[in-house]
């Protein structure tokens, strides 16, 4: 059509088909011609420039089968389903690298068809990373980072810096002052440790909202368990601040995180560093039992202190008709909860290690 404008056209693909979505409302008098390597379209409708005559022409990168292709019109768009002659993913839609400004990539419509009635969304970023980068460069001229990935990068990097600070300060003080440095560990890094530990609560929310994969139970137990030890057992009882076990506990926690957060950053960008992966799924073998042992010592040392102060305990009578004796709870925790929790976390990490490092689990003889 003479004087026709070009509508916005959004394209996506599967291994078998190309889909084109022409953003044209109330399409009238469509004139469409499909050839193996070319599509011409003209119609009247309401597009980006209002009610007008719209037209476009596309020269395709590869060959289509016009007989197996189809289109349908609706009140809001014209949708093309174009059959590829060869079952292959196209690196671009058009024959030339320079694509018209009105042609857009519709990433939300990239699908994978398995022959069933239901369609499974194709994760193009993970399944075809090179293709994704090329298409994004074609669309925007640069690679647009995912906001979720940027946030996780900042979070992991910040936590790494925080635990590096704790580990470095404690190491320097021990090198300088020897065992006497243990008496001042909480005074030196207690505030920093409380801050990074509070931020770790976000890791529970990361799983809940789908920012990270994996089960919720393991991070929930580990994060809340650490918070209980740090805030309720150490921070709330001043006499615990100068105990050497606090120094050991902070060093163990920091050693674990100095490996865990760089590993998470490498996985965000799909960079496999085998020594880092090996450390991530190996250092827990000595450090987890030592950490839980130190936590048990902290609880054990606190029992007489809380029996004396009755902090966090609730006595009868009261308005709620409820009683709670923290020292008794701590004794029950040490006897019946601490070791099952350690077993659960150790088995969780063992299964992850077998999966990640390709190590076969032990099997019983039949």
Automatic annotation (TrEMBL):
Q: What class of enzyme is it?
A: lyase
The EC designation for this entry is: 4.2.1.134
Family indicated by similarity: Belongs to the p23/wos2 family. Belongs to the very long-chain fatty acids dehydratase HACD family.
**Biological role stated in the UniProt entry:** Catalyzes the third of the four reactions of the long-chain fatty acids elongation cycle. This endoplasmic reticulum-bound enzymatic process, allows the addition of two carbons to the chain of long- and very long-chain fatty acids/VLCFAs per cycle. This enzyme catalyzes the dehydration of the 3-hydroxyacyl-CoA intermediate into trans-2,3-enoyl-CoA, within each cycle of fatty acid elongation. Thereby, it participates to the production of VLCFAs of different chain lengths that are involved in multiple biological processes as precursors of membrane lipids and lipid mediators.
Q: Which GO terms describe its cellular component?
A: endoplasmic reticulum membrane
| Record's bilayer topology term | Multi-pass membrane protein
Instruction: Please identify the protein, giving its name as recorded.
Output: Very-long-chain (3R)-3-hydroxyacyl-CoA dehydratase
Task: For this UniProt record, give its keywords in alphabetical order, as a comma-separated list.
Answer: Coiled coil, Endoplasmic reticulum, Fatty acid biosynthesis, Fatty acid metabolism, Lipid biosynthesis, Lipid metabolism, Lyase, Membrane, Transmembrane, Transmembrane helix
Its signal peptide is none
Q: Where is the CS domain?
A: 4-94
The Gene Ontology biological process annotation of the record reads: fatty acid elongation; sphingolipid biosynthetic process; very long-chain fatty acid biosynthetic process
Name the catalysed reactions: a very-long-chain (3R)-3-hydroxyacyl-CoA = a very-long-chain (2E)-enoyl-CoA + H2O
Its annotated pathway? Lipid metabolism; fatty acid biosynthesis
């Amino acid at each position: 059509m003479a004087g026709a404008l070009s509508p916005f056209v959004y394209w996506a693909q599967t291994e078998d088909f190309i889909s084109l979505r022409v953003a044209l409302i109330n399409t009238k008098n469509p004139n469409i011609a499909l050839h193996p390597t070319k599509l011409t379209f003209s119609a009247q409708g309401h597009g980006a420039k209002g009610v007008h005559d719209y037209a476009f022409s596309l020269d395709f990168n590869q060959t289509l089968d016009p007989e197996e292709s189809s289109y349908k019109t609706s009140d809001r768009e014209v949708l093309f389903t174009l059959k590829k002659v060869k079952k292959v993913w196209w690196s671009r839609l058009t024959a030339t690298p320079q694509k018209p400004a009105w042609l857009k990539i519709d990433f939300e419509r990239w699908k994978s068809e398995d022959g069933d009635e239901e369609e499974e969304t194709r994760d193009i970023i993970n399944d075809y990373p090179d293709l994704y980068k090329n298409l994004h460069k074609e669309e925007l001229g640069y690679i647009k980072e995912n906001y979720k990935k940027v946030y996780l990068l900042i979070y992991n990097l910040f936590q790494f810096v925080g635990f590096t600070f704790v580990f470095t300060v404690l190491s320097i003080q021990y090198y300088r002052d020897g065992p006497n440095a243990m008496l001042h560990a909480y005074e030196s890094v207690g505030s920093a440790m409380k801050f990074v530990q509070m931020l770790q609560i976000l890791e529970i929310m990361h799983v809940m909202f789908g920012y990270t994969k994996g089960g919720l139970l393991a991070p929930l137990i580990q994060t809340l368990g650490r918070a209980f030890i740090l805030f309720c057992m150490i921070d709330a009882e001043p006499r615990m601040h100068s105990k050497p076990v606090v120094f050991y506990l902070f060093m163990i926690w920091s050693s674990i995180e100095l490996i865990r957060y760089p590993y998470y950053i490498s996985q965000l960008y799909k960079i496999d560093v085998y020594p880092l992966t090996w450390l991530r799924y190996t250092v827990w073998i000595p450090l987890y039992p030592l950490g839980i042992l130190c936590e048990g010592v902290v609880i054990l040392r606190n029992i007489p202190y809380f029996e004396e102060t009755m902090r966090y305990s609730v006595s009868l009578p009261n308005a709620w008709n409820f009683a709670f004796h923290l020292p008794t709870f701590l004794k029950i925790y040490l006897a019946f909860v601490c070791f099952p929790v350690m077993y659960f976390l150790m088995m969780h990490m063992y299964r992850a290690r077998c999966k990640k490092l390709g190590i076969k689990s032990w099997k019983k003889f039949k």
